[in-house]
Amino acid sequence: MSQAQTLATFFQILGPAGPLNWHDPIALRNLFTQNSGPPGNPTFPNVGLTTGQGPQFNGRAKILTLFQHLFTCFPQVSLTPINALRPIDGNTTVVETTLGTGPQAASWAPGGNPSAPLSNVVPNNANRVNLPVCAVFTFNGDPIQNLALYFDRYSLANGLWDKVHPPHLV
User: Fold this and answer.
1) How many CB atoms lie within 10 A of CB 122?
2) CB 105 within 8 A of CB 125
3) DSSP category for residue 31
4) What is the rounded distance in angstroms from the CA atom of residue 136 to the CA atom of residue 167?
5) What residues contact 136, with CB distance under 8 A and at least 6 apart?
6) Cβ-count burial 75-92 (b if 16+ within 10 Å, e if not)
7) Rounded distance, CA 124 to CA 113, Å?
8) Which pTM value belongs to this model?
9) Which residues, 6 or more positions from 77, have their beta carbon under 8 angstroms from its beta carbon?
């Protein structure tokens, strides 16, 4: 599979509802390279949310946990490209996207690990957020080596928040 096909498959699975493999966490995990060496090794697959201070999911098992939890918490979630792919070099592609959460159905704590501020939001199954996200894909051949998703976690939490529970999000 080429990098372009890998990205097309990624956005088919995580895009708006429709395709047969929509929201299939195993199919998403399988788009990432195999674990190689210790976690943190440059050849170890990783998904990072926002920056190094945000949650990091190192290795295929944790990447699978991330996507499983994402689809449980946000059953209608989608990540949709808003323009053409922009390759930086032969191994890196940047994609401007929109994250559509749909209603939040469960508390956010992938792998049992809360990550504020989103983990502080009490799901109300009503509020929805559309948020710009910059997705940076790094490849090791065809599989995805690293995915960095840059977005404003506080805007996301504030948009999903019911403005009551918990009161400390004010």
Assistant:
1) 13
2) yes
3) T
4) 34
5) 92, 93, 94, 95, 146, 147, 148, 149, 150
6) bebbbebeeebeeeeeeb
7) 20
8) 0.91
9) 14, 23, 70, 71, 99, 100, 101, 102
Q: How far apart are CA 6 and CA 81, in angstroms?
A: 14
Residue partners of 5: CB distance under 8 A and separation at least 6: 142
Say which residue the tokens 């059953």 belong to: 75
For the ranges 25-34, 64-73, 117-126, the lowest mean pLDDT is seen at: 117-126
From CA 166, how far away is CA 144, in angstroms rounded? 37
Cis peptide before 166 (omega within 30 of 0): yes
Domains and their CATH numbers in the chain: 3-101+128-152 (3.10.450.50)
Q: Which tens digits make up the pLDDT trace of 51-85? A: 667 889 999 999 999 999 999 999 999 999 998 77
Task: Decide: residue 63, CB within 10 A, 0-12 exposed, 13-18 middle, 19+ buried.
Answer: buried
Distances (CA, A) of 98 to 78, 81, 134, 135, 136: 8, 6, 8, 10, 13
